[in-house]
């Protein structure tokens, strides 16, 4: 892949110049902090807002496990949307503006062009995810109670892999469509469909959506891994990047 390192550095610089790095990091950090804060102070918030009325509202005491699970569910929803938003115009946007043709007119391969974007976006999402998870863990321990670190780390890494898959799928459709909205919308529909398909017998256990279920079980110290879903997720990432390169080689820019 000729030109991978220069293109990768270029993508990182553009992320920084366009404030994408800052925005994504702040978004993940916000949900990492707000999840344990809301759980810890929810009874006081309800009491102060007067929502209870004459009937007292009995709230269960928050637990560290609740905080960790809530963070994972939030990342499953908000994190996926963030990944789609930052990746849907990565290739289609450059094709539409004509900058992709200028870049590829230099001695760089189309594989390096695709991979540099994926690596830069993947690094941004991974670091932001770890930042948000670290803040969630710290505030949970401070405000709610102690929790074993290793299960939470394992759960976070599984969710990170799922987000990296979302990036790869969106990048593929970004190479397929010239419209960023079409790329993002199609990726969202595909990701939702595979999530629903996890309920299907036999084949459902191998779909990437099971990574989120595995991450939740890991928090509860359940020994029920989904290695098939893990292998399939890694394979899908590789196939999406491969076919994105093939698409650019066969498509007129």
Describe the structure.
The protein has 10 helices and no strands. It has helices at 4-17, 20-49, 64-87, 92-97, 99-104, 110-143, 149-176, 180-197, 210-219, 227-250. It is mainly α and 253 residues long. The longest helix has 34 residues, at 110-143. It is globular and about 65 Å long.
Number of strands: 0
Based on secondary structure, the structural category is: mainly alpha
Order of helices and strands: HHHHHHHHHH
Radius of gyration computed on alpha carbons: 20 Å
Biggest β-sheet description: none
Multimerization state: single chain
The share of residues in extended strands comes to: under 5%
Number of helices: 10
Q: Give the fraction of residues assigned to helices.
A: over 70%
Low-pLDDT regions: none
What separation lies between the terminal Cα atoms? 19 Å
Brief sketch in words of this structure:
With 253 residues, this protein is mostly helical.
List the helices and strands and how they pair.
Blueprint: H1 4-17, H2 20-49, H3 64-87, H4 92-97, H5 99-104, H6 110-143, H7 149-176, H8 180-197, H9 210-219, H10 227-250
Helix pairs in contact: 1-6, 2-3, 2-6, 3-6, 3-7, 3-9, 6-7, 6-10, 7-8, 7-9, 7-10
């Amino acid at each position: 892949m000729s030109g991978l390192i220069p293109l990768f550095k270029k993508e990182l610089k553009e992320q920084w110049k366009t404030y994408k790095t800052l925005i994504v990091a702040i978004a993940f950090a916000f949900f990492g902090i707000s999840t344990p804060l809301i759980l810890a102070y929810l009874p006081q918030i309800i009491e102060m807002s007067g929502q209870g009325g004459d009937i007292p509202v009995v709230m269960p005491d928050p637990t560290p496990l609740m905080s960790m699970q809530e963070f994972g569910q939030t990342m499953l929803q908000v994190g996926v949307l963030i990944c789609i938003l930052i990746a849907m115009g990565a290739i289609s946007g450059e094709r539409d503006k004509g900058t992709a043709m200028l870049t590829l007119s230099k001695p760089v391969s189309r594989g390096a062009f695709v991979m540099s974007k994926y690596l830069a976006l993947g690094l941004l999402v991974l670091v932001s995810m770890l930042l948000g998870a670290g803040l969630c863990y710290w505030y949970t321990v401070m405000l709610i109670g102690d929790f074993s670190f290793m299960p939470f780390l394992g759960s976070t890494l599984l969710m990170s892999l799922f987000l990296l898959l979302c990036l790869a799928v969106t990048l593929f459709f970004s190479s397929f469509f010239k419209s960023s909205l079409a790329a993002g919308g199609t990726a969202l529909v595909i990701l939702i469909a595979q999530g629903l398909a996890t309920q299907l017998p036999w084949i459902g256990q191998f779909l990437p959506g099971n990574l989120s279920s595995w991450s939740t079980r890991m928090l509860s110290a359940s020994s029920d891994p989904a290695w098939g879903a893990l292998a399939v997720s890694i394979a899908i990432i590789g196939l999406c990047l491969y076919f994105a390169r093939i698409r650019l080689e066969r498509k007129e820019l």
